[in-house]
Amino acid sequence: MLTAPTQLSPLTTLNLPIIRARVTFRLLTNTQLPEYKGAMLRGGFGYAFQRASCPQTCWNKTEGCAVAQLCPFRWIFATPRPPDIEQIHDLQDVPRPFVIEPPTDGRREYRAGDALEFVLVVIGRAIEHLPYFLYSFEQLGRMGLGRDQAQARLERVEVLRPWQPIGTTIYQDGRALGSDWDLPLISAHAIAEHAVQLPNDLRIELLTPLRLKTRGTLLRTIDLGALVQAICWRLNTLSIFHGNGPWDVDHRALVEQARVITVEQQHVRWVELLRTSTRGEEPQTMPQGGLVGSAILRNVPQAVRTILLAGSVIHVGKSATFGHGGMEIGGIT
Q1: Which residues contact 181 (CB under 8 A, 6 or more apart)?
Q2: Are strands 262-271 and 202-210 parallel, antiparallel or unpaired?
Q3: pLDDT tens digits along 284-331
């Protein structure tokens, strides 16, 4: 039985369903893959999605589409801006409604028959295009992974229940298991309900590089005010573009609550990463470094626990779709 949050949740007015799905590839050949696989998976997935949903005349393009109406690829990767939305007048990059969470074990050597697992997060109305996600991952396996374009077979996709390692299998061994799925969604209420069960003292762990700026400067330590502000901004923009419109909440009050929280035992380090972008006429090398590590948070109000937990679901900061800005929020053990 669901229990109602003991205080009014800051997510009460947010309607932005989310799913988390475990994706399993089976390698068909021996290969080496990057230590951090976010860019490899995200980059290959983008190419595969366009080939799965667009005519060939549109491939490698995001503008000048040959199809008059918006196709699934443009909804996911080049979402149009709603008119007359004052809250996003200074938004430079429209958020994509998905995240690829790569494995964090740093493994590089794979042999034929080995599994490669990662998590796909799909947000808001993008869930309607889930069949395209499945077909795109099938195509990605055929296109090949990594520099060696190692062949792989999409073996299984399982939509996970909120904060559980099991869920509903929607794809198995080359076949989608129906289309009228009863998917286990992560709703705003589910996030608020889980936040109530967390203790006041928390451990935050930055699992993948957090690349976040405040006042134009990259964060080199955990700044809870800046972090909560970034999560609120991301939730709002995702709701505008992929949900039911702007999220009506007092962001500033949440940020002020976060700023007075005591941060102890902060053990973080900067990890430098580079990726090559093939958008545009010439490939460009782009920095993707960020913070990883952990800290203890003392006396965290329920509202801030809720926002941090939401951030752990959607990721935060630069390159979130690549899996960056992944966090784990839990009690102190």
Answers
A1: 130, 159, 168, 170
A2: unpaired
A3: 677 788 999 999 999 999 999 999 999 999 999 999 999 999 999 999
Q: What's the CA gap between 40 and 135, in Å, rounded? A: 18
Q: Whole-angstrom distance between the N-terminal and C-terminal Cα of the chain? A: 27
Domain extents for the chain? 18-176, 193-331
Quote the CA–CA distance of 92 and 101 in Å, as a whole number.
23
Instruction: Look at the alpha carbons of 36, 120, 270, 327 in this order and tell me if their dihedral is positive or negative.
Output: negative
Run of H or E including 204: strand 202-210
Provide, rounded to the nearest whole percent, the portion of the chain with pLDDT above 90: 72
The predicted structure's pLDDT at residue 3? 47
* Average pLDDT value for residue range 123-136: 95
CATH number belonging to the domain at 193-331, selected among 3.30.565.10, 3.30.70.1900, 3.30.360.10, 1.10.760.10:
3.30.70.1900
pLDDT for 304:
97
